[in-house]
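[job 4471] stage=fold_predict status=RUNNING
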Amino acid sequence: MIGIVVTGHGEFADGIYKSFEMIAGHADNVSIVRFEDGMDLNEFHHKLNEVFTKYSNQYKGVLVLTDLLGGTPFNTSMVISQEFERVRVLTGTNLSMMIEGQLLSKVEDNVDKLANQIVEVGRLAVSFPEIIFDTDEEKVEEGI
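[job 4471] inference complete, writing structure tokens
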């Protein structure tokens, strides 16, 4: 099993996890680490390092889901991850990545394989769908 750490600015991690929980239920292998407004960088670093250490000892790998490339949660996670053999950091996290990642983390033991799968899921989840309306008045008046 792979452990998952969700981190981001403000309430990002809480919000995405609450949405995940609403759809898929509670996940024991997921931890949230908030980077709060005005938080001391050393404190944030310490909190992330604690979870990375705990999960590295507990799971076959650790997948870190961050909100924004170049942001403090991403940068700090990348720096700390260099101290661990099986910690991988992803960025641009969306709900599809969270759901698929946690479900696959139960059966996947290779953190690199899981990371690549989740990145692909995240890409596929982003789209620009179009709704095409039929302008035929008769059909519009009939409704569904």
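[job 4471] summary: The two ends are 47 Å apart (CA to CA).
[job 4471] exit 0
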